[in-house]
Amino acid sequence: MNMDQDQVINSLNTTNTLLQTLIEQLTRLERKHDETNKELVRLAEHIGGMRTRVSMISQMSLVNLRKELQELIFSKQLSYLDTLDTIRRDRMSFARFGDGEFLLISDYERHLRFQRNSPSLQDDLAEVLSVPSSNLLVGLPDRSQSLHWERVWPRVWPRIEPLIPRGTTFGNADVSRRFCFELHGQDGVQAWRRIWNDRDVTLVYGAGSRFSAISELFDGVKSIQRIESKPTNAYSDLDRLETEIRKSDPDIVLIALGPAATVLSKRLSESGIQALDIGHLSSSYAEHFSGGPVPEDSPLARQ
What we know:
The N and C termini lie far apart (98 Å). The chain has a four-stranded parallel β-sheet with strand order 5-4-6-7. Strands 1-2-3 form a three-stranded parallel β-sheet. By secondary structure, it is an alpha/beta fold. Helices cover 55% and strands 11% of the residues. The radius of gyration is 32 Å and the shape is elongated. Strand 6, helix 10 (259-269) and strand 7 form a beta-alpha-beta unit. The chain has helices at 3-72, 80-89, 99-106, 119-130, 147-160, 178-184, 186-196, 215-218, 238-247, 259-269, 281-290; strands spanning 93-96, 136-140, 171-172, 200-206, 223-229, 252-256, 274-277.
């Protein structure tokens, strides 16, 4: 055997040794991979079990929440038409709470696209909700089972529940939304119109806002006076608005200013002025009867 053959054999032996080492390493890695896969399977099963338990707990919590809502709000809530009839018959003011007002109360860092939050706004909204007034009807959301409210109620209820006055009758805040018109049609329209027919109406709304005194709702009034506020963050304008409204000696005041309207309605009611937070009433009429857009999907100001 010559030198070249010895070198080839040595090289083959070395290569064989390296291959054997690689095979052993691969075998160990395969065992670790199998063990890792088994651990991942066990972990996935554990996570699945946790998700099931969390889901069960969430469902139980939601059931309890629905019971509390039924007991504290829905069982004491007027229907759409009864809400409007009470406002008309008893000359009640009306302050509405929706998801926006609840979220502002519940989370200081939560802001709406047209209203920044503040501690004073939180306190004022909480007072409107928690302190009943003999000439103010507070409207709370309908018993909607929509996915939206299934998400909102658990988020806000820990803060809102202690503020709900026990034994109080509530109006229905959704009376100014399309749902009222879907259910009652022209009867809903006439119920609104009867509140202000043959009366001197003062309208308060943001400058350039989408609000419009459409004839279908307002052509029966005696007169209309308009007072404009800021297009956004109207809460900071409430002192000026209140002073200007008092000077006008209004018969009835209709306010479309988001959460600021909720606060202003209570302030004016305490002075004996009938003030109604009418929300998106005109836009909701157009949404139902004319196929208009959902109010929240529309721009804040007229285009």
